[in-house]
Each structure stands twice: as C-alpha cells, then as structure tokens.
Design brief:
The chain is mainly α and about 100 residues long. About 55% of the residues lie in helices and about 10% in strands.
Length: about 100
C-alpha cells in the first residue's frame, strides 16, 4: 500500500468516525526538513569540538590501532606453559 492509498483509507475512517481528516502526504515535508536542518545546526554549535564526528572517528581509529599493536607486542603474563595438541592427538606442553 502506498502513501496515497493509506491517506484515502485514513480519510475514509476519519469520515466514518466523524473525526477531522488527516493531512495529505507530503504536506509537512518541507517544514520537517527545515526542522532537521535547524537541529543539526544547533548541535554543531553546542557540541564540543572533541565530541564531533571527525574527532570521534580519529580517536576510535587510534585506539583500535593501539590495541592491535599492544596485543601483538605483549607477552604471556602468567608464564605458564601452554598445552598444545598436535595433529596426531598427542598433548605436548610448550611456550607460545
């Protein structure tokens, strides 16, 4: 069902119930677009520079890269030998 058909159905229901007819589709589209644009402009003014999207992306990329580098450079903390199971099913112990 498209917007025009839904509007006709809603208009019919409103007439049957004695209510006011709903606005036609697209009536408030321009007003809604202006309100959204105004909201984004407001957010741009009140949002701290560090919380804006480019800064958040830069921090996320930096922390992800640092995490990957950190994970690759760390040694096992507990010092325990790992148990390795070979292809033949024999369990061996050895450090990774």
């Amino acid at each position: 069902m498209n917007a025009g058909q839904q509007h006709l159905l809603d208009t019919y229901r409103a007439a049957q119930r004695g209510e006011a007819a709903p606005p036609a589709p697209g009536t408030h589209t321009v007003r809604t677009a202006r309100e959204i644009q105004q909201w984004y402009r407001f957010r741009a003014v009140v949002t701290a520079p560090a919380d804006r999207l480019p800064s958040r992306l830069r921090r996320a990329v930096h922390s992800a890269a640092a995490g990957l580098l950190r994970r690759g450079a760390t040694e096992r903390v507990d010092g325990a030998a790992d148990r390795l199971e070979g292809v033949d099913g024999v369990v061996r112990s050895g450090a990774m």
